[in-house]
Amino acid sequence: MAYRVTFIPGDGTGPEISEAVQRVLEATGVDFEWDFQDAGADVYEREGTPLPDRVIESIKERKLAIKGPITTPVGSGFRSVNVALRKELDLYACLRPCKAYEGVRTRFPETDIVLVRENHEDLYAGIEYELGDPRTEKLRQFIKETEGTELREDIGVSIKPISIHGTQRIVRAAFEYAKANGRRKVTLAHKANIMKHTDGLFLRVGREVAENEYPDVEFEDRIIDNLCNQLVTRPEEYDVVVLPNLYGDIVSDLGAGMIGGLGLAPGANIGDEYAVFEAVHGSAPKYKGQNKVNPMALMLSGVMLLRHIDEREAADRMEGAIAEVIREGKSVTYDMKPTRDDPTAVGTSEVATAIIEKMETVAV
Ligand code: NAD
């Protein structure tokens, strides 16, 4: 029976990347029935919203989606479609594997980590008090009364909420991923020594989940600054790393840099009911329509989708073919060449063709 999956091609370079990814996914032999759904700036012009209900309904019905990047125009008035999707579908866990394949240009060839970032809470929750807003003054007075601390008048304030519920489910997501994918260790990142009631809670609750529910998987914690230092000195010591939202955001880009760049960094946003697979990178609009950018990040997100639906043989075959094309270094896009203007770089579509050819020969 065919897997019913919502496919959001996205905008900018999204449609050309998506076309390449669709071809490779179909070449695995796994049967997909796609429901193509447009969202983003063009849809906003036509339908008055960048994320029409039909897109959400399609994903709710199918439970699975793969998505190209979507531009968030600066000052357009509509908030990010990507953030809205995560909220609407309660996709609380952001999974970002950072694996350095043989042949990529990296200083960290041993890297093979999976970042699990909390998606809803922390300083990203969007609870902010603007400079000059009367509510900011009220908050300042409240802090003075309850804390005895007098904050300066010329402040803006962002609130950092971290809950037991949010922590329990993100830490469980990290352990479940570790178990399902044969990973050996989970590291929890925090700054509990300074932020005792938020990161401190994250650490305490994380430890409880680890001890009570996953005694068979190794668990450790690291202060976030120390983790950053160690990731670039001893990356091979890390495996699955679970982080609150803001640290997860920053360390994700560090991870992408460690494995050869954004063109190779896949991701997934997962909740209890739905999963949306998408690359870390954005729509790279300056390259739109040029058949130029690297489709491998979204392809590797497709590999994650295959593993999510337990099509492991197809996932291994597709990943193996991508790895082989990277190792050979011939049919790769400009970002993977020694110089950006290398004339031997191929286009988005040619990468897909090379991977499909490899899939027919690669042994898993
Ligand atoms: P970007 O990731 O689109 O591009 C930054 C640069 O990275 C590009 O100019 C290019 O040099 C390189 N790059 C990105 N993807 C690449 C690929 N696949 N192959 C080769 N090189 C690649 O980031 P940006 O310019 O900050 O954002 C552009 C738009 O995308 C913005 O509107 C932003 O809001 C949006 N965005 C969307 C998502 C998403 O859909 N999940 C994520 C991030 C940014």
Give me the secondary-structure topology.
Blueprint: E1 3-8, H1 14-27, E2 32-36, H2 41-47, H3 53-62, E3 64-67, H4 81-88, E4 93-99, E5 112-118, E6 128-129, H5 134-147, E7 157-158, H6 164-180, E8 185-190, H7 199-213, E9 218-223, H8 224-233, E10 240-243, H9 245-258, E11 268-270, E12 275-278, H10 296-308, H11 312-328, H12 348-359
Parallel strand pairs: 1-2, 1-3, 3-12, 5-10, 8-9, 8-10
Antiparallel strand pairs: 4-5, 4-11, 6-7, 11-12
Helix pairs in contact: 1-10, 1-12, 6-7, 10-11, 11-12
The structure holds nicotinamide-adenine-dinucleotide.
Residues 69-72, 82, 262-263, 278, 281-286, 293-294, 297, 335 line the site of nicotinamide-adenine-dinucleotide (NAD).
Q: State Rg.
A: 21 Å
Shape: globular
CATH class of the largest domain: Alpha Beta
Averaging pLDDT over every residue, what do you get?
95
Strand order across the largest sheet: 2-1-3-12-11-4-5-10-8-9
Q: Can you give a write-up of this model?
A:
- The protein is of the alpha/beta class and 364 residues long.
- The chain has 3 domains: 1-100 and 263-364, Isopropylmalate Dehydrogenase, CATH 3.40.718; 122-161, no CATH class; 162-258, Pyruvate Kinase, Chain: A, domain 1, CATH 3.40.1380.
- The chain contains 12 helices and 12 strands.
- The chain has a 10-stranded mixed β-sheet, sandwiched between helices. A two-stranded antiparallel sheet has the order 6-7.
- Helix 7 links the parallel strand 8 and strand 9 (218-223).
- Helix 10 (296-308) runs antiparallel to helix 11 (312-328) and helix 11 (312-328) packs across helix 12.
- The longest helix is centred in the middle third of the chain and has 17 residues, at 164-180.
- The two termini are 24 Å apart.
- The mean pLDDT is 95.
- Residues 69-72, 82, 262-263, 278, 281-286, 293-294, 297, 335 line the site of nicotinamide-adenine-dinucleotide.
- Nicotinamide-adenine-dinucleotide is lined by residues 69-72, 82, 262-263, 278, 281-286, 293-294, 297, 335.
